Amino acid sequence: xxxxxxxxxxxxxxxxxxxxxxxxxxxxxxxxxxxxxxxxxxxxxxxxxxxxxxxxxxxxxxxxxxxxxxxxxxxxxxxxxxxxxxxxxxxxxxxxxxxxxxxxxxxxxxxxxxxxxxxxxxxxxxxxxxxxxxxxxxxxxxxxxxxxxxxxxxxxxxxxxxxxxxxxxxxxxxxxxxxxxxxxxxxxxxxxxxxxxxxxxxxxxxxxxxxxxxxxxxxxxxxxxxxxxxxxxxxxxxxxxxxxxxxxxxxxxxxxxxxxxxxxxxxxxxxxxxxxxxxxxxxxx
Length: 285
Hints:
By secondary structure, this protein is α+β, with helices and mostly antiparallel strands. The chain has helices at 19-30, 48-53, 74-77, 135-152, 171-176, 192-196, 209-218, 278-281, and strands spanning 2-9, 34-40, 59-62, 79-84, 89-94, 108-115, 119-127, 159-163, 189-191, 204-205, 225-226, 229-234, 242-252, 267-276. It has a 6-stranded mixed sheet with strand order 3-4-2-1-14-13.
C-alpha cells in the first residue's frame, strides 16, 4: 500500500500567530498518513495539536498524554507528537535527557499503527539534542533509538521521523544509515532523502526568516544551511518479510505565505510503498 509520511518541527508557539493556520493548511493539502511533529506545545484551549490537525481526520497523541511527569522546559519548547490516519497504540515514550542534554524536553514517542491488510507498523517520532557541540549526546540518543525500535519492531519496516539536529555526515546519522558503528553496535536504516530526494535537502536555513535570528544567536556565521530533519525506514536486515520502497521525497513548509514562514524548520514529505513480502515469508526465520 502507498503511505505518505510527513515530519515537521512546528517551532512551539513562537513568532507570528498566523503560522499555525499555515501549518494546518499545508497538512490538509498534503493529506499524510503518518505525521511526526516536534516542539508541539500542550495545554491551553484549544490545544495546539488539535489546531494543527484540524480537518485532517488524523488521530493524534502528544507525549504529555502518556507521561506521568513533565520534563523541564516542555511548557516553553513543547514536546513530540504523532498523528496517524488510523488509530494507533502508544508502546513507549523514551525520555532522552542524558548528561549534557538536560534541556531536551522532547521525548521520543513510539506507536504501533494497524495498516489495513498489512498488519502493524512501528512509527517513531524523535528529536535529538540541539546544541552544536552535543554530537556525543546525539550518538547515545541514536543508539537508544535503535534499541527502542528493536524492542517493538514488527514484520513491517519501522518508520522513524523527526528533527535529529545533525547533518548527514554526523556520527549519529552515519550510525543510523549503517556507515559506522557506535559503542560496538551497528544498524541500518534507509535515509529517504538520500534515496529519492533531489538536491541538498536543507531543512534549517538562514534563508528562512524564522530561523535567521536563532542562527545568528548560536551559529553566528553567514548563510548557514543544514539538513537536520529526516525520515528513516527499516531495511531488509531487520525486516526480511516485508518491503518499504521509497518512491518520492520532497521538502514541505519551505516557502513563506504572504510573508509568513510556517516554521523555522522545513518539513520533509515522503511517499513509500509498503507491503509484506509473500515470497520471503516462507523462507526467512
